[in-house]
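Please review the protein record below. Tell me whether the encoded fold seems credible here:
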Amino acid sequence: MKALITTLFLICSITLSAQSNQFAGAYSRSLSEEGKHIIEYKLTLNQDGTFVFHSYSKLQGGTPPEENKYGKGKWSVKDNMITFSANKKEDFDEKYTLDFNNSTARFVAKNPRDKSDKVVKTKLQFLESEINWMRRIDVFRI
């Protein structure tokens, strides 16, 4: 009986770690207008449940003209919805100032059962965030 319970526990933990592996990785988005504006977003979801985010913008005539913003914290997944959180004491300092608490994103990928030629880029689509400009932003898997 103990062996059966141990085996079931092992199978469940392997399944859970395999699910987080499908979400972990690097995501990016670059918006630019030749010679005028550059906006780049880079998000890395680590397999240990942590994340790092970097936003770079260079806007012609902007104040300031060039800006870097950073955020980090933890992420978790439930039903293709990724929830981000940040600990005020551990994840914030002079460099990491973006607060990802209460931010959620939907993981979008082609269904493995879909055998059509339709191309679906794997992405995270931010649905909610206290960072106003993060709402409705899509970042694509690299």
Q: What stands out?
A: Residues 12-19 have pLDDT under 50 and may be disordered. Residues 2-23 form the longest helix (22 residues).
